[in-house]
Each structure stands twice: as C-alpha cells, then as structure tokens.
Amino acid sequence: MRVAKETAQAAGPHIIGRAADAARRTVLLTGASGVVGRALLPRLGDFDVVCLVHRSPVSGPNVTTVLGDIAKPMLGLAEQAYMELAAKVDAVIHCAAVTDFSRTDGSLEATNIAGTEHMASFAAAANAVLSYRTSPPMGLM
Known about the structure:
By secondary structure, this protein is an alpha/beta fold. It has a single domain (2-132), classed as Rossmann fold. 32% of the residues lie in helices and 17% in strands. The chain is built from 4 helices and 5 strands. Strands 3-2-1-4-5 form a 5-stranded parallel β-sheet, covered by helices on one side. The protein is globular. The model is unreliable at 1-21 (pLDDT under 50).
C-alpha cells in the first residue's frame, strides 16, 4: 500500500497539467488489473483514467479501457488511435510488468524492457508526466 499511496500523491494535480483550463485531467494507467494497478485505480478518482489492457478489462467510475499491448510499437494501436490517445493524456502511470523472472518465453523482456521503452516513448509523444511503478518479483514477496 505504501507504493500505491506514493503514486497517488505523485499523480496529484500539482504535477499533472496539459491545459490549465481543463476541468479533469486524464491519466493512462498500465497494469490496472495487477496488484499495484488495482491498488492505484480507486485512488485516481479525481482523474479520467484510461486503462491500457492486454487481456483483462477494467471498469470503474471515470474509467475507459483501451485494448493494447505495451510490448508492441505504438502500444499495438493503429497510428490514428495512438495519436488520439497521446493528445488527451496528461500523465502516464506505468505498472504493467511480468514479475515471474523464471519465464523463458520472451515475455519478460518484451514486457519489462521493450514495454517500458514504448511507454516512455508514448509519454514523450503525449508530453505527459511518466511514473513507473511495479511490484517486487515473485518469490521476493
């Protein structure tokens, strides 16, 4: 819960801001169905939240789900969808990660390395604040 509290504070309105006249700001959240993402989502009630999901849909007040894949360039989205998403996002909270370090199928590297690079590129394209949060690897908890 400490990570969730710190992230909610870091995502506060004092650092997120694309337009001063915007009534609500928009946060893109990855990993919303995971441990950290599930803890963060209820704390983001003051924001419109777009959850980029790979498999598990997420719902809640002010939550929109977008099907994508952080392991793919442009998050697996068509160019138009990518650009529209980038135009409305003020902050990115990146929590998606593979935490099973014994995996040998390539998903660890694709998600944790390439996926993080793709999220950093997206945040830059969106001119958005990027916050990276993850849970400890399985076996260390």
